[in-house]
Amino acid sequence: MDSGSRNFLVLLLLFASSLLVVDANPIGVCIRNCAQCKKMFGPYFEGQLCADACVKFKGKIIPDCEDITSIAPFLNKFE
Known about the structure:
mainly alpha, 79 residues, 65% helix
């Protein structure tokens, strides 16, 4: 393997590992989950409030759209 190919592989591995670190960011995961719940529940879900909670609690509480207890604080009442 020549040095050009080796350098390319090293750069490729570094890039791939940086993507894994970005995906593992708990605040990012939390905000993406908020967006998913907003898509699922529409006007009944307070997406901005959810995202604010993600930042405030640094992603320690991650909403799960299928777990009512994790999203209850962000749901509007039916009228």
